[in-house]
Amino acid sequence: MTTKQEQASGVAIMGGTFDPIHNGHLRTAVEILDRFNFNELRLIPCFQPVHKGLPSITAKQRLAMVEMAISSDPRLTVDAREIVREGPSYSIDTLKEVRAIIGPDEPLIMVLGMDSFLSIPTWANWQELIHYAHILVVSRPGWEPDLISELNAFCENYRAASSHELQCAPSGFIWLETLPSLEISSSMIRALCKKQESIAYLLPEPVQTYIIDNQLYQDNVTL
Ligand code: ATP
Ligand code: MG
């Protein structure tokens, strides 16, 4: 084992609808693991998104695609707790559950794209999130860190002075990390499928094959 691996600490989680998972999610996840040396990054597909319409396909199908997408990197894991829990997938419930499992001292890091982060003031009990985890915000093409005032004041109280703080405390800090941009979104992929255009190279090949074989995203049926 290398020194880098010996010093790994922290559990990162990345929630999403993953409708479908794509290379924007996956490159973000591996960049974060390489830069921060967390022990693992868990992808947590939601059951029912709270702030957007219902997913276009079943939770089982979204989960299957996440599982096939992560097989090439052992640091990536999938955590199906929101799907098992059913109902609206509130992040605060998930953070409390994961915190209870990993114990009070282990760093827990919630990774959010800038678009998700900017919507935080609309989330259930959003001011409590930081008591259970750090928030690691990653840049996303088209979304500038131009914080609305309520969120700005909140960030002032919690902004980490260095990224190192995310591994020195179990929770309580916000850090913004700029990553190389991949302008890919699930909605873009769904739109391409609907037009019967190629989705190659936007997502892992097995996921692409699964979408094509199961004729997903070809019409507007909501399940
Ligand atoms: P949709 O287009 O349906 O909204 P999405 O591509 O935004 O889907 P989500 O499953 O909603 O994907 O996103 C899950 C998380 O991943 C969010 O925190 C989001 O900000 C982040 N994310 C998604 N795509 C990217 C990307 N290309 N670069 C960085 N972060 C991303
Ligand atoms: Mg989105």
The gyration radius over C-alpha positions equals 17 Å
Counted by DSSP, the helix tally is: 11
In CATH, what is the homologous superfamily? HUPs
pLDDT < 50 stretches: none
Coarse morphology: globular
Please give the number of β-strands. Answer: 6
| CATH top level assignment | Alpha Beta
Mean pLDDT: 93
Helix content: 25-40%
Number of domains: 1
- Going across the biggest sheet, name each strand in turn: 3-2-1-4-5-6
- Structural class, by secondary structure, is alpha/beta
Distance between the termini: 46 Å
What does the main sheet amount to?
Answer: 6 strands, parallel
Bound ligand species: adenosine-5'-triphosphate, magnesium ion
**Order of SSEs, N→C?**
HEHEHEHHEHHEHHEHH
> How much strand?
5-15%
Q: Might you state the CATH topology name?
A: Rossmann fold
Q: Mind telling me which CATH architecture this is?
A: 3-Layer(aba) Sandwich
